Amino acid sequence: MIPEIFEFAGRLPVRRLGYGTAQLTGPGYWGPRGGARDAVAVLRRAVERGVTLIDTADNYGPSIAEELVAEALYPYPAGLVIATKGGVVRTGADAWHIEGRPERLRAMCEASLRRLRLDTIDLYQLHRLDPDVPMAEQLGALDELRREGKIRHIGLDSVTAEQLDAARELTDIASVQNRYNLTDRASEPLLKLCEAHGIAFLPWFPLGNGSLTTDRVCADIAAAHGVSPGQIALAWLLHRSPVLCPTPGTGSLAHLEENLDSAAVRLSEKDMSRLDALS
Question: Can you give the pTM of this predicted structure?
């Protein structure tokens, strides 16, 4: 049986197939993508379909994705978990600057609270560890925000298993968010560590940035199930590990429906063996 629910830190339940907001912004996650009306419609439909985990970031836009989440969903329904990220500053479509100084992390978190119209962010993820700032100072800043009630849980993005171990020595970590999909499993050691400690793993690029929608093996298995290759790639993640919580993003209502229908796909042991061999 494939578990439908994951509980962050054993206390914050979500449906494992969530929704990510990066595709609500323009190329390179920079600027708007079309009109706000379409984005609002997609966000509302995701929640109507039972999504309880919305994953966003302050630098998607920048600021645009968080503002759209609030416009579409505030006041937030009971049980909806909003996750956002801070620690990266954007100055252009191809310009990313890691910023982990404690005072900057505080300012970014408080700006996200205002945009999202929240008193507490359910899951605040450090978008990148800043190599120029001690990890203890970065996580210490987030711990302080948690003690003040501005953050409920802390997550990390793009880390190694060794970095997660080091972070867990400093504070409680509820989630990680690394690239992971059918054909990119470099983070397998991290996944195993998350399984051992009940930490959520939110895989980014769960569809290989679109490449898995055209994979031949996925297509063959999809045809047998009467679904799309992309649905097979998402179903594989849900079958692969109970801590994997994919949050595929899209700006299309039709694609949203397709993604969410992946939760109903049941893969056989033979299907999983063929898909596992793609690594």
Answer: 0.96
